Amino acid sequence: MNRGKTAVIVGAQWGDEGKGKIVDVLTQTFSVVARYAGGHNAGHTVIIEGKRFVLQLVPGGILRPGCVNVIGNGVVFDPLAFLKEVATLREGGVKIDGNLFISNRAQVILPYHRMMELARGIGPAYEDKMGRRGLRVADLLDTTLLRTHIENAVREKNMIAHALFNSDPLDADKMFKEYSDAAQKIAPFVCDTALLLNQAIAAGKSVVFEGAQGTMLDIDHGTYPFVTSSSATSGGAVTGTGVPPTSIDTVIGITKAYCTRVGGGPFPTELLDEQGEDLRKRGNEFGAVTGRPRRTGWLDLPLLRYAGMINGISWLVVTKLDVLDHLREIPVCVGYKIDGKETIEVPAQACGYEKIECVYRKMPGWATPTSDIQTLEGLPKAAREYLAFIEKETGARVGMISTGPDRDQTILVPDFVSQLGLQLKSPAARA
Ligand code: GDP
Questions:
Q1: Which residues are the active-site residues?
Q2: In angstroms, rounded to a whole number, what is the distance separating the alpha carbons of residues 336 and 108?
């Protein structure tokens, strides 16, 4: 039996590239989807025949009957958020029964993590993981251990939170009751997912690995310290699931046709003018979970090349091409200059970005709608040239183009389909 095909999907920018939709399209042919990093702050929006699903912790394959979904060990897992998400999906008619698994080695987010961050507790949970004082899913199911862990942790965290924020103390008994109840409900989903995934691959099943956020938010390779707490790059797929690097066939990078970033930190091609506002409105650039407006800017090829190098991207998927449909001219950043000199290096320090001067090239726009176009040849010449320019400048091939939020607004490049041995059909052919 040949081993199954595997592909890692990474955000090639700062996240929100539309990975959710692309994973959804790929699940036509992949049997398993495995999440390898992040927590329930990663909001994917998938629209299927006009129906909107927001996925936070549950992998995108849940929307495709027959697809197996794995929450890997690299994820920080909030049991309450998980149960709520599963309930909402079930209410929306999604079948969840024997198609969703949680790693027994994933770290658990507890109320004191949320207390430390006043948000979802993702960062503090990763801190406890690295500090070797975290609670893992297997421990959550072990009632005696859970009680001791909660009692000890709550005592310590209450002292810290009182000193730092003057917070009201958390009640260990109440927490134990709530989490041991939740543990019972999640127990049927828990297993050794590294074993499950490696066995699935050995049995010829194809697996797609889905990260959270994007390359420039990776804890090591992003714009530190304006980053997330996990490994968002393709290496995270290995450590975050227990599937070895030798079992990864392809890395697919997702990039918007322009650029966005949430929150503070470097953003060389940012537009602070009306053009930026225009991209934000047309691209609906507001967080799926928080509604927070995203910062917007032109496509940044030096960063895409960097993402290509760090992740080993051989195929790119360009999303939101339609957002540029109205433009007569599209500036693209083709290089960085620091102190007047061109450089191919991306700064290690966040302050290093302040010195960057972007070199732009203006590409002709197509100024015509692309949302209903189903083939590469059907795209306007200027759009094809825009994509060809991205290929030339990054050395990666464009395998898929997304021209709207719906599953069907996707153009598949035949070489991508055949080289990956995918049994993907273009949406038009499926209809
Ligand atoms: P993710 O976290 O990378 O999946 O990205 P998000 O889900 O946060 O952001 C993608 C948003 O853009 C969602 O609202 C999608 O429905 C939408 N979207 C995805 N692809 C396209 C596209 O090609 N065109 C347009 N206009 N919207 C898209």
A1: 16, 44
A2: 41
